[in-house]
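Much of our argument rests on the idea that a fold can be written as discrete symbols. Part of our work consisted of pairing the sequence of a single chain with a tokenised description of its backbone. No coordinates are needed to read the tokens, only the vocabulary itself. The record that follows shows the chain in one-letter code together with its fold in token form.
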Amino acid sequence: MKRVAVVFWSGTGNTEAMAELVAQGARDAGAQVEVVSAADFDESTVGDYDAVAFGCPAMGNDELEEFEFEPVYTACEPLLGDTPVALFGSFDWNDGEWMENWESRAHEAGLNVVGTAIARDYPDDEAEASCKELGGALAA
């Protein structure tokens, strides 16, 4: 059974809802899942998981949340190696460019990105399905 961590930061609850959907998809695919806020995640435990999902909404000028999420993600990035990684988050302006930037950053760092999921505000039916599929991909 694969162990999956779903690490997120959420300001309004939208990305937290996505985190629960990613976790549900991974559980439905047979994984053991831990959902944890970025503030409560210790990068030294990254090696304890077979796959990790990171969730953060678009902030400011299409960037990651800088005080809690960014430091944790930055600390985890060099420790992930070939670990399957998923990226997800919500936005409510622009066109979701922050996710394109984040995914590019992850690829440039050599991460094994298995997919992404985004939602405009609270996840609608399409985003819900995308999140569950993303969780399933991590559990595969």
In short: The mean pLDDT is 96. The first strand starts at residue 3 and ends at 8.
